[in-house]
Write a structure and sequence with these properties.
- The chain is mainly alpha-helical.
- It has one domain.
- The chain is built from 3 helices and no strands.
- α1 (4-20) runs antiparallel to α2 and α2 packs antiparallel against α3.
- It is elongated.
């Protein structure tokens, strides 16, 4: 799911890409921003997979509703995008 925050970050990165290629410093900054965005995206992807696993465990009866609520709350608190 693409949120407004994700779209704003993508637009910012694209703007930096257009300006950042003009100098060494800009290129270095762009590389750092791009690496950070990729890292954050990977982290959110991992959390999404964790959420899916918890939902599957709840539906199959492996965990109780209380355990489900606790684990989902932990995932929400760990998320960068809320």
């Amino acid at each position: 799911m693409v949120t407004k925050t994700t779209m704003a970050i993508a637009a910012l990165v694209m703007g930096l890409a257009l300006q950042g290629c003009e100098s060494r410093g800009g290129s270095a900054l762009l590389g750092g921003v791009g690496g950070a965005a990729a890292g954050a995206g990977g982290y959110e992807y991992h959390l999404n997979r964790q959420k899916e696993r918890v939902e599957t465990d709840r539906k199959s009866g492996k965990i109780t509703q209380n355990e489900y609520d606790i684990r989902m709350d932990q995932i929400r608190r760990d998320s960068l995008i809320q």
